[in-house]
Every structure is written in C-alpha cells, then in structure tokens.
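Anyone else keep sequences and structure tokens together like this?

Example one:
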Amino acid sequence: MLFMVTKPYIGVTGLVSHREIFEVRNEFEDAGYGLDAKHVPMMGFLVSYKTLNGQLTQNRRYPKFKDLRSLLESVPPEVMPMIHYNSRELHTLPEQIEQVFTNFYKDYLCMDVQLNIPWPYTAHVRKIKDKFPEMKIAIQLSQKAMEDLSLIGIADRFSTYGKDIDYALIDPSGGRGLDFNLGKSIMIYKELRNSFPWLVVGFAGGLTGENVESKARSIISSVNEDNFCIDAEGGLRDKVTDEYGDDTLNFEKVRAYIRAASSALE
C-alpha cells in the first residue's frame, strides 16, 4: 500500500532481519493495526552515509544496505516502511537520498524518509521533494537540534521548510532509550501544531510497554487530540554490551509496547 495520506503512525525502528519484520507484523496485526486504522503501523530501517557506502558498523540496528531491498520487499502492504537516514556529509544530502531511494521509490518499496540530521538545509529538502514529489519527509527533533532554541525558535526554523516537511518527531533520546521530558515535549508539540496545522508530530524516547500507555494518555489529555505519532527503538531491545547499538530486538518487549499503545491510541 502507498500511504499517500499523511497519517499518524505507531513505529518500531531498527529492524534488520526478515524474522524481525515477520514478528513485528504479527504484533501489529494482533493489535488491530492495518489499512483502516487511525494510526498506521510503521517499521523503521536505519541507513547512514557509512552503510550506504558499504562501510562496516558495529551498531546491530543497521542492516547492510545491500540487504535492504530484500527486507523492504518483505514488509507487508498494510505497514508503512520508513528509512531513517543520518549523515555528516551534509553538502551532498540530496544526492545521498537519491542514491538510497531511486530504486525503492520507483518500485514503490519505500517512499518515506526521516532525516536524522539537525535542521537540514532548506534548499536540500526542497531538492529532495522535487526529485521525489510523493515522498513523505520527517525531521527528527533531536536534543542537538533543539538545544539553545526557544519554542518560537523551533517554530521559526520549521517555517523555512514550508509544506515540504510532513512529519516532525520530537526525539531528544535519539534511539538511546532515554526517557524524554514529557512536559517540555508537549509544549513543543503544541507550538508546532498551532503554527503548522498540516504537520503530523510525534514523540520518541525510552518508550516501552511499561510506560507508553500512561504517556500517550497524558499527551492526549494535554493536547486534546490523539493524532500524534509514537516511535520506539532503544526501549525495545536487550543490551549485549553497554556500547550504543550493541543490542538485539526483544519480541516480548515489542508485543508489550504495541499492545499498550493500542490501549491508548485505538
């Protein structure tokens, strides 16, 4: 399915194998998420400049880029696949995104990207949108992106993109499983939604089966709507060592997270 309408999603990010895709798909299905759900199920795949160019990484959350097509082909049609891309080579970002997406986009395997880059250049975002007009673009609001900016400052930075940005993910954790400041994140959410009504805004940071329902309900009561996204990564994994990314997906944690999320976001 092509998710042409920008809908809020419930995400699990950092998938690297066919088995993980199969297991996560089953959990989404069991929780009632499918084509007609208000929140669509999302599977996030991590890609970096290094993995795009065949360089090795010790981070277990990144699939080899050569394997990504096969993984995307196994994502079921009722699930929204999204590539989460990061790079320090900012001067060639549009060319990198073109390298990632040319075949995936034209074959309808993946048409959505989250830019895990603090405030990518406006001209680069415009160039990406011109090349892939149906692509949904998300920007990650990481701790680095938001530091030293007021609420108005964050909104001012977003205003430069016009309607080229479809999603904003408030994610001060950046996949590290760190809890986020709920009150501050809600204030950012309100500012963005008031300034850009078309923008779908989401929350991430340490979400687990133990806390996602209470946090989602707190957000709902504060913003008087439930059309926001949530995404989980680090909180669904078991550490192998204390090194960032040296961990594995825990299917029981995924099940608990999706079921708890569905209790609040029906």
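And example two:
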Amino acid sequence: MTTRLPPDLADAIAAAAPRLGRLGRRFEYFLTIGSTNDVASERATSSDGPSDHEGCVFIAYAQTSGRGRRGRTWFSPPGAGLYVSTILAPSRSRDRERAMLLTTIAAGVALAEGVKEATGLVPSLKWPNDLYVGKRKLAGILAEGAGDSVVLGYGINLLAAAYPPELADRVTALEPELGRAVDRPRVFAETLCALARRYDDLLEGRFDAILDAWRALAPAAQGARVTVGEQTGITAGIDERGALLVRVGERIERIVAGEVVWS
C-alpha cells in the first residue's frame, strides 16, 4: 500500500525541488512492495498514457522481489538500502535511438555523481552501469521498457546487512565504506537531482557529455581482462552508442548485451 513520503525524505525532496527538473512530479512510497519497477511499469502502461507518468518516482523501504539485470535477485532488506524507480521517456530525445541506448549509461553516471555529492565517496563504474567500491558492488541499475517509456530502477546499499552467503564477499554498502552514518534522505535527493541533470542531457542530445563522464568514472573500461561468453579479451573503452569494446586477438568486438565477467 502506498503512503506519503516519510518527513525526512519529504524535507530533503522539498529542499532539492528546484534541481529535480522533470523528475519528482509525483512520489509514491511503500513500506514493503514486491518491486518498485513493477509498480512503475504498471503506471507507465496505464490508460492515462506515458506522458502523464514521466518523472514519477517510486520508493520502497523494503522489496520482497527486487531484481537486477539478467533476472538476478536484488537483496532488499528493510531500511538497508535505497530502492527507487522512475519513469523516463528518452524516446522524446532529438535522437531517439541513441538516447534509448544510452539511458543506462547516463543513469550510471548520475548515480555515481549523486553518491559523490551526498557522501564524498566516488564509486567507479563497470559496464554498463554497476557502481563499485574496489571490487565490491555498491549499487545497480535496471532499465526496462514499458510501452513508449523506460522504467529505470536503482538500488544503493546504504547499511551493512546480513547478505546471503553468495553475496557476502562481493557487495558493500555506504556506511561501512564511509565509516560513519549515512544521510539516507540526502542520498535519495542527490541521486534524483543527478539523474534529472543527465536525463536532460539525453533529451537534449548532449551524448558526448554523458560518454565522457562515464569514461572518467570507469577505469576498468580500458585494459581490463574480461570474458564474454566463450571469448576472453581486453577492454578497449566504449563507443558512441555505449557498447563495450573488447580486443580479442587482433580484432575489436562490440558487446551490446550479455554477461561480462571481470578478471
């Protein structure tokens, strides 16, 4: 069941309102939900039409069926993370095709910038949009088509939690990395503000600004050994459409989807 934003989150959003741009036209808050992406998708494809829901934001205190890329479960215990989805319409961009391809790249940049602004910590990015601190994953992004819209969901680990054994040595959270308490409302507000800025870049066709920022935040995109399917190679950056470039022997492969295993 949806409720009003808690006062601390509402205050942070009110203070950030002039910087939210197209985002935050409406907020829906859930104490517990299956997945914020699911409810966002329902709204985006409702009879009202996608334009009526662009910029709506959905946030949960806990998710019971949170998910990441390739159908993986996103561990979403109560209060331990930010679990957020919003509805975007990159199809309205001057270059619709390229904007759609770069939506997750832009979102990765935005989350890293928002985390830095809120906490001072600078995460690194791994293709296409995961946030890392060292070799441990801090946050993930899931973009899903919903009619003419894109539902963009993100999860950021805020507090240390009793992670499942298969995750315990591969994930991290802001509080243990910072060594101090995390201002959850500020992280929420700053990540939305950063996403609003990068969403404007998408709509206005400022793709080079997005790509340059992503490259600066993604040192592993150059010179790292990766395995994609049955091929192993060395990363060689990303191209203008956001594909990962991997040197395999004497040729360069463009990776646009699939599982990338980093050595």
